Amino acid sequence: MQGSAFQKDNPNTVEKRLMECLHALNLIPGVDQPFSRASRTDKGVSARMNALTIRLRIRHPHMSLQDIQRVYVKDINKKLKNMQVIDIRSVPNFFDARLNCIHRTYLYFFIDKNYNLERMKEGCKLFLGEHDFSNFCKKRKNSTCLRRTILKFEVRHMNRNFHYFKIKGTSFLYNQIRHMVAALFQVGTGKLQLADLAIMLNNHPCRDKNFKIANEDGLLLYSIKFSDLNFDVNIDNRVFSHLMEKYIQSAVLLVSLCYPWKVKRSNCDFFEDIVDGGGGHGKDDENCLP
């Protein structure tokens, strides 16, 4: 997939395929039907879940609303390839997937290249709270507010030479996470001092910002949380554990490490361990806001 966002001339995006599927099933009048998404992912970025709000036609007026929703999920998934609709919910007219999303959680997986993880953990703490992230994003035209709030930012250990960042925020700027991760890699190698990182967060011009944005392949949209909707959908974590094992094996090959990465627990357990307050990966309160 070449990202999630709808592009009129690009058939290989998540939203374009979904809109074409809904139109083929006569659930929307056209592929240009207005909708709102909880989060946008770029090309190369993965997503465990996402959500959008859209008006669908009622094709089975004699059925209950719950039955209609189940039928729609089944019909849509018959036509979709390489993606799946988990659930459809009826929501109030005021509900908006983007505006009613109170926080998004991302994971960024990476290989340990002799990083100083303790310094990186200290760097994670600096990002907590509300800051001007002008130095940590790709600025877009007409961007007026570049302040965002980070609720959680921590480094967690996976297995031997593999780790991941867990980042939870109310919302994110374009490429913000990959810029923050790139800065932490520089902190981990000693090329960027923690004091300089703090200065960058105060929107001071950065003369030594010579690091490139982190690669998109390690980034995963893990979860979203709504203020007015219980969105505890049943995600099959085995699929994502399998994909992550493939990613790790590829990374091992690239850096010429001479051992296979083996999952020490059942496939579905890894992603279930990532939820807030669980998993035994460390103290959850060190790198999050109270």
UniProtKB/TrEMBL annotation:
Gene3D superfamilies membership: Pseudouridine synthase I, catalytic domain, C-terminal subdomain, Pseudouridine synthase I, catalytic domain, N-terminal subdomain
E.C. no: 5.4.99.12
Keywords: Isomerase, tRNA processing
Molecular function per GO: RNA binding; tRNA pseudouridine(38-40) synthase activity
Pseudouridine synthase I TruA alpha/beta domain location: 124-226
Gene Ontology BP annotations: mRNA pseudouridine synthesis; tRNA pseudouridine synthesis
Domain of life of the organism encoding this protein: Eukaryota
Catalytic activity field: uridine(38/39/40) in tRNA = pseudouridine(38/39/40) in tRNA
GO annotations of cellular component type: cytoplasm; nucleus
A Pfam entry, by short name: PseudoU_synth_1
PANTHER family, per the entry: PSEUDOURIDYLATE SYNTHASE, TRNA PSEUDOURIDINE(38_39) SYNTHASE
Family: Belongs to the tRNA pseudouridine synthase TruA family.
Protein name stated in the entry: tRNA pseudouridine synthase
Species whose genome carries this gene: Plasmodium inui San Antonio 1
